[in-house]
C-alpha cells in the first residue's frame, strides 16, 4: 500500500486552453441551474428526499447507473484494467447486472409496494428498531467515507490537470455539489445524474476510440499487452489479462477452481447482491419512480448501459498499459512515478487530440460529482428520516425535516473533506471500496434475504446478525493487514464479504430459533410468503408490450450478459 493515489503534478499537467475552460464553465452553469429549477418543485419532504415519487422509468434508470459511475468506478476500473485486464469485466457482468435484474424483478415490489422512504425504514418495519439503528448508522458512515473518495479524487484531478491549488479544488468541488443537492434535493441529484451520464460518455467514448486507433485496434491491443509484475514476480500474465476466466489475477487465489468460486460467490453473489439490492444510494433512485412498473424497470433499464460501460472504462485502462511509456514501465518493473489509478488521466494526457480536453475534463468532473451527490443525497435522507425523526426529534412539521435534510447535506459534505484523507492511502481504490462493501453491504444482504423469505426470522436476529456479520468482515480485514491471511488482488474483500454473509446467516438462524418472531399479520409486504400477489405487481403491465414489462425485459438483459461472458471468456 502506498500513500500516493495519483502521480505528481508535472507528470499529468494538461495545457488546457480558453475553450476548455469555457466548456467546463458551461457544464457548471447547467449543473447549478438544474439545482435551482428543482428547488421550485419542492413542497414536501417527500419531494425533497424522494422526488415526490413522480419520475419516469427512463430517468430513474439512467440515474440508477449514473449514481454508480463515480470516481471510484472510472479511476478504479481503469486501474484494474491496466493491472489485470479483462477479468475486470466481472465487476459488471458477474458483479452488477444479475443483481440489478434481481432487484427489479424480486425486491423493488417490496420496497415500492410497502411505501417505505428508505432501506433502513424497511428494516425497521420488518425487524424493529435494533436492526434499523444498526443499519442506519452503518449506512450513514459508509456514505460519508465513499463521498470522501469522490471528493478527494475530484479535487486531485482538478489539481493535477489544471494546476489549481488542491485546497481550492477541494472547496470548489464540495461547494458545487453541496449547492445543487441542498437546493433541489433528490430531484436535482437525479436530473444532474442524467446530464452527467451523457457528459461522461461524451468524454469516454472518444477516448476509447482514439486509444484503439493508436494501438491498431483490438488485435493490436492484444499484441502489445505485457506481463504485470509486482515485488519482482509476475502477478498477471499476458494470458491472464486477455481472458476473463478463471480470473486468478483478480481473485488472488492460485487455484483456478477456487478463483471461479470466489468470483461467483464472493463477488457475484455476496458483494454484488449486497450492494445493488440493499444499498439505498441505488435503491433511492428506483423508489423515486412514478409507478410500481417504473420502479421495477429502473434497475433493469440501467443494466443495459451497465453491461456496456466496461468497454469505455476497462478497455482504456488496458490501452494505457499497452502504449503509454509510464504505465508500461510500472507494469514491467512494479514501480515508478505513477500508480495504476493514473491510467485514465494518462489516456487524457496522451491520447486525446486538441479540442477534446475540455469535454474530457468535464466528463471526469461529472463522474466524480455524480458519485458524491448520490452518496450525499442518500445520506441526508437516512439521517433525516431514520435517525433524526425516528430517535431524536419526532412529530415536527414537514418543513422542519426538509431543513434538517439541508443541514445534513452540509454536514456530510464537510465530513467528506476529512474522510478523503483515508482514501489517499490506497493505490488501487477498488481495494478500498470492496473492503467497505464487505463491512456494510454483505451482512445487510444476508439479513434482508433471510428475513424476506423466512417468516420465522426475529427482530433480535436482525440486529445480532448484522453486528456479528460486520465484525467477521472486520476480523478478516485485520488478519489480512497483519499478514495472518495473505491474499493479493481482490481476494481479501471477497473472503471478508463471504465470511460476513455466512456468519450473519448462521447467527440469524440460531438466534431466531430461541427468540419470538413477529405476528404473521405484521409481515405482509415484508415477507414473500405472507404478501398478496397483487401487491407485487402493476395491474397495467398485462396490456403493455414486453419492453415495458419488468420480467420479459430482465430476461432479455440476462441473455445479453450471458452472451458477453461467453464471447469475452
Automatic annotation (TrEMBL):
Q: Which residues cross the membrane?
A: 18-38, 58-79, 91-112, 133-161, 167-187, 194-213, 257-277, 298-322, 356-383, 404-426, 432-454, 461-480, 492-514, 550-568
InterPro entries of this UniProt entry? Na/Glc_symporter_sf, Na/solute_symporter
How does it sit in the bilayer? Multi-pass membrane protein
Q: Where in the cell does this protein reside?
A: Membrane
Keywords assigned by UniProt, alphabetized: Membrane, Transmembrane, Transmembrane helix
Which CDD domains has this protein been placed in? SLC5sbd_u2
Record-level GO cellular component terms: plasma membrane
Please verify whether the record's keywords include Oxidoreductase: no
Name a GO molecular-function annotation.
D-glucose:sodium symporter activity
Where would you say this protein principally sits, based on its record? membrane
Pfam families in the cross-refs: SSF
Superkingdom of origin organism: Bacteria
Q: Which Gene3D superfamilies does the UniProt record give?
A: Sodium/glucose cotransporter (1.20.1730.10)
| Family to which this protein belongs | Belongs to the sodium:solute symporter (SSF) (TC 2.A.21) family.
Q: What is the name of the protein in this document?
A: Solute:Na+ symporter, SSS family
Organism in which the protein naturally occurs: Williamsia sterculiae
Phylogenetic lineage: Bacteria, Bacillati, Actinomycetota, Actinomycetes, Mycobacteriales
